[in-house]
Amino acid sequence: MYTIGQVSEMFSIPASTLRYYDKEGLFPGIERKSGIRKFSNREIEALRVIECLKNSGLEIREIKQFMEWSTEGSATYQQRKELFETRLKKVAEEMDNLQKTMDMLKYKCWYYETAIQDGNEERILSMLPDKLPPEIQKLYDSAHD
Amino acid sequence: MYTIGQVSEMFSIPASTLRYYDKEGLFPGIERKSGIRKFSNREIEALRVIECLKNSGLEIREIKQFMEWSTEGSATYQQRKELFETRLKKVAEEMDNLQKTMDMLKYKCWYYETAIQDGNEERILSMLPDKLPPEIQKLYDSAHD
DNA sequence: GCTTGACTTAAAGCTAACTTTAAGTATTAC
DNA sequence: GTAATACTTAAAGTTAGCTTTAAGTCAAGC
Q1: What is the DSSP letter of A2?
Q2: Bridge partners of B80?
Q3: Which of B53, B77, B78 should one mutate to test binding to chain A, selecting the residue with the greatest count of A CBs within 10 A?
C-alpha cells in the first residue's frame, strides 16, 4: 500500500495530477483511511494502463469509461478488447506518421550539413527536386509524398 | 501562387489555422495583393516544415524562431542544423516510447482475447508475473520494465 | 448594379489537462 | 506538546492551439 506521495515518486507524476485523475474517476473504488488515499497494486496497475492509454492518444474521460468497464467483470471483456485493438491501430498509424517526420528531419539535417560545407544553398537547390544523392532522395520523396 | 482557400484544401488545414499561423509569424514576408495573402512555393515548403516540426513536438513560437532564422541566410545554418538534429533525437525517443506503448496494447489484446475464451481472468492471473507464454511474456516485460 | 462567394480583421471563446492557491487536517519526530 | 511534514479539499488560474464571431472588403458573373 502506498500514499499519494510515494506513487508520485514511483511514477514521476505530480501528486496534484494523481488527485486530478482520481477526481476524474480514474481510480474507481480506491481505498481511503481517514480521508487519505491508499494506492494498492490495483491502482498501480491502473496507473500503468492510464499512461499507456494516454500515450495512445485517449482522453481522460475515455480512460474513465475503461476503468468503469473494468469494475463490471466479464460482461465488458469484449468492449475492453476492442478498445485496445483500436488503440493499437491508432498507435501503429502514429508510428508511420512519425517515420515520415523522421525522414523529413533527416533530410533537413543533410540539407544544412551540406549548406554549411558549401557556405550556401545553391548546389542543393540545383539538385532539387529529383537529382539528390540516392539515399537523400529517398528521404526527400518520403517527406514530400 | 495560391489563395488561403487553395492551401487550406491542399493541406486539409482550416483557413483559420493558416491565418493563426501567419499571425504567429510562421510566414514571415508573405506577399499580399490588396490585403489578400498570396502563398508561393516558399510558403508551401514552409508549411511542410511547420507540419514536420509540429509533429516533432515543437511549439509554435519555436517554429517562428526557425522561420526567422530562415530569413537570415547562411549566418544561421548552424542553429538550424542543430534544431533538426535535436528534433530527430526527440522523435527517435518518442518512437521508442510508442514501441513500449504498443507492447502494452498487444499484451492487453491477448489478455482480453484469453479472458473471453476462458470466460474469466483466473488462468491469466495464475500465470502472472512470469509464467506467461513466451511471446506474451516479452510484451508484458517490455511494458512493465 | 447587384448578388455571391472568398477573402479580411480583432477579439472573444473554447477545450484538455493540468497546476496553483488557500485553508485546513492528520501523522510522525523529538 | 509542539513543530514539521504530508496529506486533504474546492475553486480558480494557466497554457497551447486553435475556432468562432461579427463586421466588413473585394472581384467575378449575370
Answers
A1: B
A2: none
A3: B77
**Rg, chain A, Cα only:** 24
The helix (run of H) or strand (run of E) holding residue B37 is strand B36-38
Q: Are B4 and B19 in contact (CB under 8 A)?
A: yes
CA B7 from chain centre, in angstroms, equals 21
Please report, rounded to a whole number, the percentage of residues in chain B having pLDDT higher than 70.
Answer: 100
Instruction: Give the strand pairing for B31-33 and A36-38.
Output: unpaired
- Nearest CB neighbour to A84, from listed B87, B98, B112: B112
A46-99: pLDDT as tens digits: 999 999 999 999 999 999 999 999 999 999 999 999 999 999 999 999 999 999
Which residues of chain B are under the pLDDT cut of 50? none
First-to-last C-alpha distance (Å) of chain B: 53
Domain ranges of chain B: 1-71, 93-145
Q: What is the DSSP letter of B62?
A: H
CA of B52 to C1' of D2 (A): 59
- Cis bond upstream, residue B14 (ω within 30): no
- For residue A92, list chain B residues with Cβ-Cβ distance below 8 A: 102
What topology is assigned to B1-71 in CATH?
A: Multidrug-efflux Transporter Regulator; Chain: A; Domain 2 (1.10.1660)
**What's the pLDDT score for residue B145?**
83
Q: Are strands A31-33 and B31-33 parallel, antiparallel or unpaired?
A: unpaired
- The residue count of chain B comes to 145
pTM above 0.90, yes or no: yes
Cell of B62: 519555436
Of B70, B66, B42, nearest to A115 (Cα)? B70
